[in-house]
Design goal:
The complex is a heterodimer.
Chain A lengths: L4 E3 L2 E5 L4 E6 L4 E9 L6 E6 L5 E4 L2 E5 L5 E6 L8 E9 L5 E3 L3 E6 L1
Parallel strand pairs in A: 2-11
Antiparallel strand pairs in A: 1-3, 3-8, 4-5, 4-9, 6-7, 7-8, 9-10, 9-11
Chain B lengths: L4 E3 L2 E4 L5 E6 L6 E8 L3 E9 L2 E5 L6 E5 L5 E5 L8 E8 L7 E2 L3 E5 L1
Parallel strand pairs in B: 2-11
Antiparallel strand pairs in B: 1-3, 3-8, 4-5, 4-9, 5-6, 7-8, 9-10, 9-11
The chains are: A mainly beta, B mainly beta.
């Protein structure tokens, strides 16, 4: 099925730095979602994007739905140690509740 | 509102056995989707149930099946377990139609 290309695969940053990750696809998606997953737990929804071009913030997190509906990015500003985890992008295909996931970005924050 | 709950959280089975996992969606949510997560393959979609009917299906063998009850609770069954079925199985619920999905904590299945 359609897969999402998520990059980077991993990031090692210093506390206080900003982070940026993105997802691209050859398919058009109806909705883009960003999740964070801690070890042994299910993904927790961070931000949901429903319209092309939409820019949404949730605290220190900002995400945008690309104009072509084939890409999205997530920014984290002023990172803190609890930001550590794996971040997944997910796209919902048009008129279909089937979600496709990126491979994840593993974020490590050094205090 | 209570979140998505999954039981059991951990399960150990042997090859050839079968297993049933349970998922209770957020109250009012009618859609339940199941995913398999492994280090090698990432998150892969198994199937989705809406109003007791399977609405979407991923690319998994027939050993993987599911059902949904009238109260929207869902079960997933895997028959004739293989070593490669060891994974974190996640369910996610959404209000219905096409909607944002909220995940449960998962069931960690280990097949020996």
């Amino acid at each position: 099925g359609q897969q999402l290309n998520q990059s980077p695969q991993s990031m090692f940053i210093q506390e206080g730095e900003d982070v940026s990750m993105n997802c691209t696809s050859s398919s058009i998606f109806n909705t883009w979602l960003w999740y964070k997953q801690d070890p042994g737990e299910g993904p927790v929804l961070l931000i949901a994007l429903y319209k092309a071009g939409e820019l949404t913030s949730n605290g220190r997190l900002t995400a945008q739905f690309g104009i072509t509906r084939k890409d999205s990015f997530l920014n984290i500003s002023a990172s803190i140690p609890s930001d550590v985890g794996i971040y997944f992008c997910a796209g919902q295909l048009t008129n279909n509740n089937d979600m496709r996931f990126g491979a994840g970005t593993r974020l490590t924050v050094k205090p | 509102k209570a979140g998505v709950t999954q039981t059991p959280r951990y399960l150990i089975k042997t090859r050839g056995q079968q297993v049933t996992l349970s998922c209770s969606p957020i109250s009012g949510h009618r859609s339940v989707s199941w995913y398999q997560q492994t280090p090698g393959q990432g998150l892969q979609f198994l199937f989705e149930y809406f109003s007791e009917t399977q609405r979407n299906k991923g690319n998994f063998p027939g050993r993987f099946s599911g059902r949904q009850f009238s109260n929207s609770r869902s079960e997933m069954n895997v028959s004739t377990l293989e070593l490669g079925d060891s994974a974190l199985y996640l369910c996610a619920s959404s209000a219905g139609g096409v909607g944002t999905q909220y995940f449960g904590p998962g069931t960690r299945l280990t097949v020996l």
